[in-house]
Structures are given as C-alpha cells and as structure tokens.
Design brief:
Blueprint: H1 2-24, H2 31-41, E1 46-47, E2 53-54, E3 83-96, E4 100-104, E5 107-108, E6 113-114, E7 117-120, E8 125-136, E9 143-159, E10 173-174, E11 190-206, E12 209-210, E13 215-235, E14 240-263, E15 266-289, E16 297-301, E17 304-323, E18 328-341, H3 346-354, E19 364-376
Antiparallel strand pairs: 1-2, 3-8, 3-19, 4-7, 4-10, 5-6, 8-9, 9-11, 11-13, 12-13, 13-14, 14-15, 15-16, 15-17, 17-18, 18-19
C-alpha cells in the first residue's frame, strides 16, 4: 500500500511539473483580436429569402486561444412588437386518492367465498383550456409570459351492491365519510357526485438558449397562484352526506423545457417543473342526514394553512415556422402532461378528524392531452 501511494505521488508531481513547463511559454489570449473577429462575423447569419433564420456555426478562433462565451439565445425573434399570444385545449383525466364511497363485507357459503367489494368514485377525461400572453424583453434574450389554466369538471357514480353466493343482494356499508355509520337497506344503490374546480395563474420569466445546433434548453422560474374547490355528495337515499372544501395557494414555480429540432420546423419537446405553494384552506363543511326523522347536521372548520408541493412532467411534438419575412411566427404543439398535487383531499382528512382518527389526505392527480397554438407578432 505504501509503495502504491509513493508511486501515485511521484506520478502526480511529474504530471504537474510537465503541465507547468508546457504552459509557461504559451501565448496569452489576445482579447482585442478575438473581439474584432467576433465583430467581423456579426450579422453574417445565413437567411432564406423571406424565410426562417438558419443558425450558422460559430466564427473560427485559434484553438489555443478560446474567447469567453455564453449560450446563444434561442427565443423567437420577429420584426414586429415581439409579443405572442397562445392558447391550449386540454383534455385531462382528474382523479384523487381516498375517494372510496362504500363497501360490501365478504360473505361465504360452504363452498363459495365472495371477497369484499368497494365502490369508488368514477373519474373521467374532461375538457378545459389555457390562455396566455408573452413578450420578448430584448435584454440578453430574456422572455416573459403569463398563463391562466381553467379546469372545472364533475363526475357522477351510481353502483348497486353485488349479489352474494346465496343469491341474495349484498348490502352497502358506509365508509367514514359519515360521522355516524349506519347499515344500508339491501338492494339500495350508492350514488355520488364529485365536483372539482381548478383555476391557476402562472407569471414566468425565462432565457431559452442553444445547447447545440439542434437542441434548445428553456429554464424558467416565477410565481404560481391557484384556487381549488371541491364538493362531494354521497347518497344511499337516506342517509346522505355533502362535504366541501375551498383553498387558495401561492408560491414559487420553476422548471426546464427542452426542444430537439428534427428538421423542417418539427421538434420533439419535453418539460419538467415543480412548485412549492403556501396554501390557505378557507372552507371545510360537512352536512349529514342519517334518517328521515332527523334534520341534517352541519359541521365546519376555521381556516388553517399548510405548504403543498406540485410536480409536473410532459412530453410531445411541435412544429413552428416564421412567416411574412420574419414578421410573424406560428407554432403548434401536442403534449401529454402529468400533474401531481400532494395532499389535497382535505375533505376526507377532516371528516376522519371528526371521528377522532387521523387519515392521510390523498393526492390529486391530473394527466392528459395539451394541444397548443401560438402566434408571435
């Protein structure tokens, strides 16, 4: 081991001495000549007649004298106001954890066993939209934009209990959405309606740049605000329950996008982002009726706060082209996006708190198609 250590030390000393000898007599970089070279090459970009700007290779420099450099900006640059408008049609599937409605206890005969069955809230794809406005700052390639997302939807569920091995109809047993669990008459269906309303506003800044001649990187950061409302109604005829929650949130949002240019304006694109939002829950209400003779009882909580994260991923294809001698730029894209909102099912958590138990607030998930169009002018 000692011999190996001495050999490594001798090699390191010899390498350092050799490097010092090689660099001792090297020329210093002539900064002024490098600037003149870059200045002489400025403005010589190749351009198609009234067409797209085509990126050229960087100007040649002496291999032993490399100039200071930075990544070339890759934002859209038109000859007009340098403003863009964009919009998206979204068709997203929204679901949430801890949305079980009722269950059937296992039943058995001498020869057959039927496992327990759980009724869950149905989730479906529903439409929404995004709309935004962007601008080029004309300062070092920085751009900014604001985007509003609207997604309001409701889904309904109606399920009958399954048949037991004996041929009789099973019996639904309520979950802990009810603070006073009761038995349900045989054959009674469970029906439910879940309403989710999301409004989200992003204000972002970015400096897209070329990582290579065919790859652009788009890091971005800014602020996000959102408003989220949920309502869930569950009914077995009688009993029935209605639960609701409201919240607003604000905090930083940051991420990175990437484009791989495939040619003729076509690109492969991806996106990853994350948010950390201060969240204020402004409403929780729980209204329950367990019999025809009893009046509905309502319970509500006061406001409270938390910090909740959001994660985003997306991948897709796009196409863009300059028009009218670079006075306009038109772009289309289609991407499949994913969003994960941590711990958003406050309705279920607070209802379990009324029962004296602690339940995990389930996550809210969204995924689906985002088809976008953009015009720069």
């Amino acid at each position: 081991m000692r011999t190996f250590f001495m050999l490594c030390s001798a090699t390191l000393i010899a390498t350092t001495t050799l490097f010092a000898q090689n660099t001792k007599g090297s020329k210093k970089c002539d900064v002024s000549s490098t600037k003149d070279l870059l200045k002489s090459e400025k403005g010589k970009e190749k351009q198609e007649p009234c067409g797209n700007m085509v990126q050229t290779a960087p100007p040649p420099v002496e291999k032993k004298c490399l100039p200071a450099a930075y990544n070339a900006p890759a934002g859209i640059d038109v000859k007009g106001w340098d403003v863009d408008v964009f919009g998206s049609f979204i068709y997203w599937h929204v679901s949430q954890d801890s949305m079980d409605l009722a269950h059937v206890l296992p039943a058995s005969t001498a020869t057959t066993v039927t496992p327990g069955v759980v009724a869950y809230q149905d989730f479906k794809y529903k439409p929404g939209f995004k709309a935004g406005l962007g601008f080029n700052t004309n300062y070092d390639g920085w751009v900014g934009w604001a985007e509003y997302t609207w997604l309001h939807q409701d889904t309904t569920t109606s399920q009958n209990p399954p048949a037991l091995p004996s041929g009789a109809v099973g019996t639904w047993v309520v979950q802990d959405w009810f603070t006073t669990p009761v038995g349900i008459t045989e054959g009674t269906a469970v029906t439910s309606k879940w309403t989710m309303k999301l409004d989200m506003l992003d204000a972002m800044f970015s400096r897209p740049y070329y990582q290579g001649t065919k790859i652009t990187i788009d890091p971005f950061a800014g602020l996000r605000g959102l408003w989220l409302r949920q309502d869930l109604n569950i009914a077995f005829g009688i009993p029935n329950v209605a639960v609701a929650s409201k919240q607003w949130a604000v905090g930083p949002n940051a991420g990175v996008g990437g484009h791989w240019m495939l040619g003729t304006g076509v690109r492969f694109e991806g996106k990853a982002a994350a948010s950390l939002l201060y969240t204020r829950y402004t409403k929780y209400s729980h209204t329950e009726q367990n019999s025809l003779a009893a009046l509905p009882t309502t319970t509500s909580f006061s406001s409270w706060s938390a910090v909740r994260p959001i994660a985003e991923l997306g991948v897709g294809l796009g196409w863009g082209k300059y028009l009218a001698c670079n006075h306009y730029y038109l772009d289309f894209s289609a991407r499949y996006d994913f969003m994960l909102f941590w711990e958003q099912n406050i309705m279920r958590q607070n209802t379990s708190n009324l029962l004296g138990t602690v339940d995990y607030p389930g996550d809210l998930q969204m995924h689906g198609l985002t088809a976008s169009a953009r015009l720069d002018f």
